[in-house]
Amino acid sequence: MAAIAAQGLAGLTMAGLGKELGMSGGHLLYYFGSKDQLLLETLRWSEAQLGERRREVLGGGASATERLRAFAALYLPTGAGDPRWTLWVEVWGRSQASEEIRAGQVEIEAVWRADLVELLREGIAAGEFRAVEPERFAVLLGALLDGFGTPVVVGLPGADRDTALGHVEGFLRESLLVL
Asked: Is residue 144 a part of any domain in this protein?
């Protein structure tokens, strides 16, 4: 993950990565088949780790509102160059040309969306959230988080995690939360 984040997939060779990992590029190709598959499997590994943290956040005894805020904080990049988000940027850039990448992307994103939909349903049932269509709102919130996260991970001037979280909080307060 660190090598992909540092060099980008285009700048990474299997031979160079193999040398970094103490194995041959041929072994990497044997196990992964291609750089695209290496990228996808690295993203799956990263998301599996993050999924454990997401389950902890969502499974806690906090209110639905607090868990939604924690979900958004977990979703957004930690800052410019966040390795996990850098993997996503690479995947998004390759998904148009690769059905395999696109299918993997959909599979990984579906887990986040399903968790968010369930959280929204819980919040609506508890009276914490306005009555919204959970599936539709999850798509909207996901797009908002992606839209704020991309400039943060790229390191655009004026884009930072705290500002993004503030914008997301304002959106949630105005559109979803029952105050």
From this structure: yes
Nearest CA among 150, 52, 44 for reference residue 104? 44
Full DSSP string of 2-68: HHHHHHTTTT--HHHHHHHHTS-HHHHHHHHSSHHHHHHHHHHHHHHHHHHHHHHHHHSSS-HHHHH
What pTM, to 2 d.p., does this model score?
Answer: 0.88
Q: What is the pLDDT of residues 125-136, one digit of tens each?
A: 999 999 999 999
Cβ-based neighbour number of residue 11 at 10 Å: 10
Q: What's the total number of domains in the chain?
A: 1
Q: Tell me the residue range of the domain where 139 lies.
A: 35-175
Spell 59-82 as b/e; 16+ CB within 10 A means b.
Answer: eeeeebbebbbbbbeebbbeebeb
CA 52 to CA 33: how far, in whole Å? 28
Digit-coded pLDDT (tens) for 70-111: 999 999 999 999 999 999 999 999 999 999 999 999 999 999
25 within a domain of the structure (yes/no) = no
Q: Is residue 156 part of a domain?
A: yes
CA distance 123 to 58: 12
Domain harbouring 116, CATH code: 1.10.357.10
